[in-house]
Specification:
Layout (H helix, E strand, L loop, with lengths): L12 H20 L2 H14 L4 H14 L3 H13 L5 H13 L7 H10 L4 H13 L3 H14 L4 H13 L3 H8 L27 E5 L4 H7 L11 E5 L5 H4 L5 E4 L10 E4 L3 H4 L21 H10 L5 E6 L9 H4 L3 H4 L8 E5 L6 H8 L4 E2 L8 H8 L4 E4 L3 H9 L3 E5 L20 E5 L7 H16 L11 H7 L5
Parallel strand pairs: 1-2, 1-4, 2-3, 5-6, 5-8, 6-7, 8-9, 9-10
Helix pairs in contact: 1-2, 1-3, 2-3, 3-5, 4-5, 5-7, 6-7, 7-8, 8-9, 9-10, 11-19, 14-18, 18-19
């Protein structure tokens, strides 16, 4: 990254002195934990001296902690528009704010200008890749992410973006390799190792601990790879407490929670590292096998079957909100009030699958249609699975419930954002991970109106057939391979 003289022209000594004094105050405020005070000082410094790299860097770090706003974006925008040769740091601040606010596409001209002035800045290349993804140019984005990683091969974030781009294109071998860089992200807490890292080599009687990481949906998605482990190994799977019961029936795997005593182990690895360690790729068939791989045969499933047996119409489960702690949740979630228009379709029996739903959201559903809500009885994902297994269709946004429904082989309609998570690939309305999942993608990033309209039309066409079962919702492959029969 470039190093800039805080007052490169060597003039305006009074303003320069003020800027230096304010910069010292900003740094002191940040060190004492007064982030808001530090932000105010840093803002004044860059207003006095837009070429102050320490001030821009400090402002960017503080803004990242306090949260990005349009006012913050405007500070960077003013700096790059009023200066004949804006400093790199001003550009980076602008694009960081625009990226977090989902508005990079509104600053394409500024990014092109910045790249012309600083063509070897890896972070600019990375932002260019994000912009290209946001504007539905995934192949060009892949090239920019690759350029960023080659310019700064030491930055884990660039490698992870490259990994996700590879994976979204179905390029699994390089994708899994680059995906391992996630372990080096500074923002991800390090797990204290309990045994040496497994290198993927089999050994009779070798005791392997496979541990969960990231979200529940990731764990459900990657649990399929456990069946690819060598059969002569002793495998323990450590997952979050609310997933233990769901995976308890996996053949040849002992399942424990994070607080349970771990059996003696020889080696360990992350669940999300299995496809890399086992050298799995799409050509090997391990990825494209989208058949159901989870099952639930519990008294809870039978109880739900009895309770829903008399429900009129097509039994449709709905989920509209992801985990708000996920940084991009605002892009994948849909306001409940917008989705309730689906309830106007005749012949549906709506079942809530949203855990901890806001009372206002439930009221929005009940204002237009009766809503079957038993989520207060749901404690674990095994409970959710027991309910989902009795539904004809699940409709929702990209959450763990969608992964669960797909893993169970239940017909599932995913209302998906653009750009989508790499799991769902760059293009297409099917899923290589789950045969029973059909995607309804945004045609314009951030716009759910068209998506909801297409889903409503598909539901209307479906119910108009008056078919007693929902088998027609899935592809022929999912019906023949998943073993799931709806209705």
């Amino acid at each position: 990254m470039m190093v800039m003289d805080p007052d490169p022209a060597g003039q305006h000594s009074g303003r320069s002195t003020d800027a230096h004094d304010l910069l010292r105050k900003a740094l002191a405020a940040r060190a004492s934990g007064d982030l808001q005070g530090a932000r105010d000082f840093f803002r004044t410094v860059v207003d006095i001296n837009p070429a102050s790299l320490p001030a821009w860097e400090g402002l960017r770090q503080v803004d990242a902690k306090l949260g990005w706003t349009r006012e913050i974006l405007d500070i960077g925008l003013r700096a790059v528009t009023r200066e004949s040769r804006p400093p790199l740091a001003a550009y980076l601040h602008l694009f960081a704010a625009a990226d977090q606010l989902g508005e990079l596409s509104s600053h394409q001209d500024a990014l092109a200008t910045a790249l012309g002035a600083f063509p070897d800045c890896a972070l600019l290349r990375h932002y260019h890749g994000v912009l290209l993804e946001d504007t539905d140019r995934p192949t060009e984005a892949l090239l920019q992410f690759g350029r960023a990683a080659s310019l700064r091969p030491d930055v884990a974030e660039f490698h992870l973006s490259l990994a996700q781009s590879y994976l979204s294109h179905g390029l699994f071998k390089p994708g899994w390799r680059e995906f391992e860089w996630r372990h080096r992200l500074s923002r991800v807490p390090r797990r204290a190792p309990r045994a040496p890292a497994w290198d993927g080599q089999a050994g009779p009687g070798k005791r392997l601990l496979v541990y969960a990481e990231q979200g529940r949906g990731d764990v459900i998605q990657f649990s399929r790879f456990l069946r690819a482990l060598p059969p002569d190994m002793s495998v323990t799977l450590e997952v979050y407490d609310d997933l233990v019961e769901l995976f308890a029936g996996l053949p040849g795997v002992r399942v424990v929670g994070p607080s349970a005593p771990s059996p003696p182990i020889d080696v360990e690895c992350s669940l999300l590292s299995l496809p890399h360690l086992l050298d799995l790729s799409r050509s090997g068939g391990a990825i494209v096998d989208g058949a159901a791989y989870l099952d639930v045969s519990t008294p809870s499933r039978r109880s739900w079957a009895a309770r829903l047996a008399a429900a009129p119409g097509l039994k449709v489960g709905v989920v509209w909100q992801g985990n708000p702690q996920f940084g991009l949740d605002q892009r994948r979630s849909i306001p409940a009030a917008a989705l309730t228009s689906l309830a106007a379709v005749d012949g549906l029996h709506i079942i809530n699958l949203q855990k901890n739903a806001h009372p206002d959201d439930l009221a929005s559903w009940r204002a237009v249609s009766p809503l079957h809500d038993g989520m207060d009885e749901v404690r674990t994902f095994a409970d959710t699975a027991a309910l989902v297994a009795n539904l004809d269709l699940v409709v929702g946004v990209d959450t763990a419930v969608i992964h669960l429904s797909g893993a169970l082989g239940v017909p599932t309609w995913l209302l998906n954002r653009t750009p989508a998570h790499w799991t769902w690939q760059a293009k297409g309305d099917h899923s290589i991970w789950y045969d029973s999942v059909r995607q309804f993608r945004q045609t314009t990033p951030g716009d759910w109106t068209d998506v909801i309209g297409r889903v409503a039309h598909a539901l209307t066409a479906l119910t108009s057939k008056r078919h007693p079962a929902a088998a027609s919702l899935a592809t022929p492959a999912s019906r023949s391979r998943s073993g799931h029969e709806a209705g």
